[in-house]
Amino acid sequence: VKRVRTRHFQNAKRDGIKITGLTSYDQLTARIFDEAGVDFLLVGDSAGNNVLGYDTTLPVTVDELIPLTRAVAGAVSRAFVIADMPFGSYESGAEEALHTAVRFMKETGAHAVKLEGGVRSHKQIRRIVQSGIPVMGHIGFTPQSEHGLGGHLIQGRGEAVAQLLADAKAVQAAGAFAVVLEMVPSDAARQVTEALDIPTISVGAGPHCDGQLLVWTDWAGLTTGRIPKFVKQYADLAGVLSTAAQEWRDDVANGVYPGPEHSYE
Ligand code: KIV
Ligand code: NA
Fold first, then answer.
1. S-S: 209 plus which of 4, 39, 200, 249, CB 3.0-4.6 Å?
2. 84 is in an annotated binding site
3. What is the rounded CA–CA span in Å between residue 24 and residue 7?
4. Which residues are annotated as active site (predicted)?
5. How confident is the model at residue 224 (pLDDT cuts 50, 70, 90)?
6. Any idea where the domains of the chain sit in the sequence?
């Protein structure tokens, strides 16, 4: 199979073919999603919540994400793998951002990096792109600035659509190959999608974007607790695993497992 490259994103937008992405943090899911034909896998700093057990993405470090990203990149044969740059690894300037991006590219085998922020991050995006590393932007609700934004709030409502458009255009002008729009009203996302030449990827930004991305643990019903309104659950993995664990416990308690077929003579 032919690897997905940045040109696939551009062609998909031109041809009106929707782009699909899921997060992945390990080789098992990476292999499954890759073979299922998902176009790109994001090793998100959402690993903070979903793998490492943090309450937010803020504590996540580059050193924590590198082994996860290496596992995902090593498992795929078609999907485009994107390394998410964590909070504190690019904000202080273009050189810091390039240093972090180069680490991900050298140490993991990822094909691109993602970082948060539009206008405020344009210098960082430009510097990384000029070095030959593709960048995915991320605007709208940006979880790393949750406290600055005042909570998990929808972005780009009403007059705020002007800021969203300015951020989108800054990301495109800086050379990003695509941009994530997170928690944005559908109509604002439509305006951004029409205004840009690069594809928009929706995370809770409605149907008019050029692609869709979800956090896999939410999408597969592995996350217990509240999941956002925009997530459609495609499986109940928490239920499947819970039932399996209870059956296993009972089988061991009742002497049903291991049977002779699971034992050596
Ligand atoms: O870390 C992540 O999973 C993300 C996506 C939700 C955009 O950044
Ligand atoms: Na992220």
1. 200
2. yes
3. 22
4. 182
5. confident
6. 6-234, 236-265
